[in-house]
Design goal:
0% strand, EamA domain-containing protein, transmembrane helix, single chain, 12 helices, membrane, EamA_dom, mainly alpha
Amino acid sequence: MANLIELFIFFPLFMVERKKFNDSLTMGLENLEVINSQLHGWKNNKKILLVIGVIFTVVPAFNFLGLELAGAINGSLVLKTRILFTLLFGFIILKEKVTKLQMLFSFVLFFGLTIAITQGSFNLLEFNFGIIILLINVIISPIGHSFAKSLLDRSEITSFQIIVIRNLISFIILFSTYFLFFPLENIKLFLDPINYFWFILMGFNYGFGLLFWYKTISYLEIGKAMIIMSFTTIVTTILASAFLGEYFTYFHIIGMIIMIFSTIIIIKQKKE
């Protein structure tokens, strides 16, 4: 439902943007080549947009399932390792510069995660199924973001277009598969009016989060943007302890300190 809410929010903005582009072409303003590319460039990138749509159909579903199984604190720490894979795919797909020190401290960051998840035992069996799901998630999501940034860098698409297209693809896939596997089960979720408050809240939250994200990577390297976003882990941990009653241990603190220190080193390297 969040996908549908996002479509309701951003499709009108998408149409306003297209009208603005068409008006600019009609009036013969400057940068006509760029405007024409942003207006019609998506037609030459249908396969990439389909891949992006499929990736970000899987990612939210994996997020919900993984966080439910792993818990909010462990889950948020796992999601912080996206930095490692964002740097990797930013280098492979976008040819962004990655230093040896950045890669070293990306693995140090993963070491801090291991301390937190295993509570210092380093027993990898402590990585429950939810953590495995989230690790798969953090591997595939940077691929989608890297493809999206490549289109933005070439001015072949806009932030509004990406949001509308990926949410349309996600809605079609999720809606059809949900009723394929659960034709009658959980139908009461859609009959309870209280749930629509949460659907709308999620739609606004995710939608404008996406808009700010795509606007950010339009101006910054994707690795730097992901590093900045990684500090949400601290907020998630505090909220999980305060509202969900999850137990925050000394090993969580040690692991988080290592991860934050690693992030600072990576940021410093990016600035240099």
